[in-house]
# Entry
Amino acid sequence: MPTNGAPIGTPTKVTQGSQTKGGIGESTLRPDGTLKVTGEFAYSSDMWHEDMLWGQILRSPVAHAEIVSIDTSEALAQAGVYAVMTYDDLPTDARNYGLEIQDTPVLAHGRVRHHGEPVAIVAADHPETARRAAAKIKVEYRELPVVTDEASATAPDAPLIHEGRTDHHIGHVPHPNILHRQPIVRGDVAAARERADFVVEGEYTFGMQDQAFLGPESGLAVPAEDGGVDLYIATQWLHSDLRQIAPVLGLPEDKVRMTLSGVGGAFGGREDLSMQIHACLLALRTGKPVKIVYNRFESFFGHVHRHPAKLHYEHGATKDGKLTHMKCRIVLDGGAYASASPAVVGNAASLSVGPYVVDDVDIEALALYSNNPPCGAMRGFGAVQACFAYEAQMDKLADKVGMDRVEFRRLNAMSQGTIMPTGQPVDSPAPVAELLRRVKAMPMPPEQQWLAAGEQADVRQLPGGLSNTTHGEGVVRGVGYAVGIKNVGFSEGFDDYSTAKVRMEVVGGEPVATVHTAMAEVGQGGVTVHAQIARTELGVAQVTIHPADTQVGSAGSTSASRQTYVTGGAVKNACELVREKVLEIGRRKFGTYHPAWATAELLLEGGKVVTDGGEVLADLADVLDGEAVEVEEEWRHRPTEAFDLRTGQGFGHVQYSFAAHRAVVEVDTELGLVKVIELACAQDVGKALNPLSVIGQIQGGTTQGLGVAVMEEIVVDPKTAKVRNPSFTDYLIPTILDTPTIPVDVLELADDHAPYGLRGVGEAPTLSSTPAVLAAIRNATGLELNRTPVRPEHLTGTA
Amino acid sequence: MDFLRPASWEEALAAKAEHPTAVPIAGGTDVMVEINFDHRRPEYLLDLNRIGELSEWEVGEESVRLGASVPYTRIMERLRGELPGLALASHTVASPQIRNRGGVGGNLGTASPAGDAHPALLAAGAEVEAESVRGSRLIPIDEFYTGVKRNALAADELIRAVHIKKADGPQQFSKVGTRNAMVIAVCAFGLALHPSSRTVRTGIGSAAPTPVRAKAAEEFLNAALEEGGFWDNGKIITPSVAKQFAELCSAACNPIDDVRGTASYRRHAVGIMARRTLTWTWESYRGTAASTEGVA
Amino acid sequence: MRVNFTVNGRPQEADDVWEGESLLYVLRERLGLPGSKNACEQGECGSCTVRLDGVPVCSCLVAAGQVEGCEVVTVEGLADYAKQRAEQGGCATGACGTPLDAAKQWEARPSDSQTGEGTELSPIQQAFIDAGAVQCGFCTPGLLVAADEMLERNPTPTDADIREALSGNLCRCTGYEKIMDAVRLAAARQGEAV
# Structure
């Protein structure tokens, strides 16, 4: 186990490009920054085309029903309406789509399975015309009983959400309304329990969170003369969309040309398709460009959410504070369609023990099919829900043992070499104890800041804020800690690769590199980092980032904290190949003039070929002499393997990332209102390719974790399975007055398996933020609080 | 849909008389949400933005005549002395952008129990100046709210102004929401001390089908203050009096469970806010009383 | 219906406007100014914030017909607006209103470069880039308009002032810390410049 402050691992040393400005490790500014601050950056909802039509979707008002009939005649008869389409109008036999399992109908076929499911689509000359026409479509529903939780899903008379399942999970699930189930068994829990001096159990509930990206689902489909279609779209993964869209349209993939438009945030909510196919269908049907933009209400129905979960945990510890065993059961509600549920189950199971050493475990995670809204990818999926529960358990257990909560965690913290419950050894730095030490060592924010400005209480610094609910009465401070573990990249044997095309040429006497990938820039700053990598690897000042499209190979998804690792790795790899080619040309042309061409290690720096000793051998302009060097190459991280379906054993993950939080909150204990005063974070990032962006990711992730701790939840009526709060009036996300200062301590311990030693950054801070806030609220109130988000009712006994 | 743009108040009244279904729009912060989300398709929109006088106010001897469209921002900034309760309530309305557009007339017109101005108006004492081509009338605020999102206006009437009693003592306003800014009230409470009449008035928001006063609580407190000579001796209000006042305020609620909060929480929170706002206003009154004494 | 108003100093006319359309829709879909963003269309996010006769408002909640004869400044005109203000000595006199003549001199220029390089920016725009306050950028236009107006009124804001002034603008990416940094930076630079 690492001791206080001792370095674990070493930062990566970079030679090539170390003299080049704007390379990796610098906080270079976003290439799209100017366009974004002037309003000129074109988001998918900003697209406009001469003669374009507006698409509108008619959605189911009920969660589960048979569709008895659909009558579109009145809608079609309305002036300004160009097309109305239902299931029967779909052009081919491919009428479903899905990320892994194609169980989602493009338009409902005889039955709707969740509130807001698309039933029909309209194209008209104005959005209002389209809305009025959609309202004139007559759909007769015969309502069916709803499945809303595990009990109703597995009851003897439960309606089957998907009858006649043929997917590859059906063989190993105990009930057809269970989508996927992953057990993990290691060691002997019964024997280990015997050694425990203390055992704690807990039942935890995690609410349904929404990604709430600000840019609504939108895009423009333009029919082309060759019978194909050009789609301008905001997505997380162009090629995955393409694979799902083309068959439904009956087009070969090369006739569906996709270009990434500006993406207004994603957080997992754009991994699944939303309006893509609908816009293309209407464009091909009408022969006109069709734009679809969801409003906020529709957006809540237009993408999957974070799985709500019920988690049962049992932990044991010896009286000297060592964990003996862990047993847990995690039930995730996947809703009506599969989306990313199987992967969420895999993450929840394999990361359910957290960043701790526990040799004896008995784990079960599963996802239900239900009539609730479909759930899928959201930042940190699977791991987020588990972290909330196991961190609550750690506090309870520490208290039982009588140890300091942080010291208890540090005593049991995993480190490099720890064997995961899946049998996989952690083979890169895992500075869990060190992160906890650092976050605890940060200075505490001053007390009673609401009095700092004078005698009058500044309500902006108090729980309730501007609403003027307290001037200090009932306010109690609490402090809480949490730490989490997240996998980076796609796991369980997925062929997780990316493609980069890099071109180097001399333009106007200056060497310029062009980087072309299909990576979806969703705000994370991948485009910034790609340019930095190219500068470092090619020693150039000027890098052009080509717009992302399907004219280059797949980059994989902008999710799972993977893009800097995988597409960054692909760009690095392609740059290295370009560099080799350039040097080859140099050797061919100039090799005879200087022996160093053959003997020295050669670098590209400042537009020149230099030796590692710093001697200039040639200008790139002379080497290339009008030639361009271009490489397009796929790049893969090391392979993973599937988890065994009975034991859960397997080398399932590529890399792990870790973050720890300390939350300081002030709770108005009488009104049950919470103000988070500070959320300090320490995270290991392996290597910060762009420190400014890294900190931005950590602060953003931290804030999303705060949201689901105290306010964010999609409320689904358990009787009807209907969403009760699909708006920004009632689905609340943190404002700037709810968000505290977020000091960040970044640790850089290289993972030797990864490019530059980097570690995926985006998700880990979303994990530990929530349990840290909950722990702080428990600390302030003395309440048990086994569900998140915490509402004022839970703090005042008025639920 | 037709868009009517009267240039004067008289034109607006005429338009409303001709088209009683016309929906008045001023700040737009309620009406436009309903239009954007397809909840409402009025036949006529009656724009009141061109009528400058609606954005003006006059401070009189007894009361402030507040134009229906005076933005909340202006109330916060300019009328804090005369209308402290309403100024505090205005500060809790949505966001700066919304406070720049929205006004009390809109709150009254919509008559949502969650409207932030209502508790402050009820506590201060106010009359709504409603007018039609048939004439003008003053509707006491206690008679204005007639049901969930219903008010005492006739179909041809428009709200021209609100006459709000100038503060003769400390006023407070509190609102509970589950976010520290930009939040709709889960419940709200307004309280005004009226030393000149030796009375206390209250207003409760979002905890009954309409905004209401806690009349039993007011009567209890008025009696207790009188009995104990508190108005004169400026003593600290005894905890048992504050507690009973709070309980009576809770009892005045008739809330529902909804997605924003439970009925039980609303009752509880109103009680807490009642006790706190009473403490704040009374401490302020005692401070003023003491200093007045000192000067005298 | 037809609506005439001024946007970023230029007279604009929108025809065939449906009476239920918002100012936001007219700006984005009829006038080719999509900088103001459509994130919630219910006044709960501030992404569509513009200045209407000088005052920051949610353009999604202003009916198009209500802006007849009004002056609107959007993010596209912010750089010129700020430049104009700086040339007039800012708000030092306390008279922050912009005279109509001055207003008509603003003009939003199209950018001729793909990356927008060489574009002249207002101090708050530059500070957002420099401080890393932009991620996906969808909230950025509204925040810039709101922050610029706050610095015009209050050139030396406290942190609590900044938070209050920007409490009507949601951001989902940054956790607001870099936005705070950006506004502090713009205020500091503004202070140095005086």
Residues 44-144+216-263+270-302 of chain A form a domain with the Aldehyde Oxidoreductase; domain 3 fold (CATH 3.90.1170.50). DSSP finds 19 helices and 31 strands in chain A.
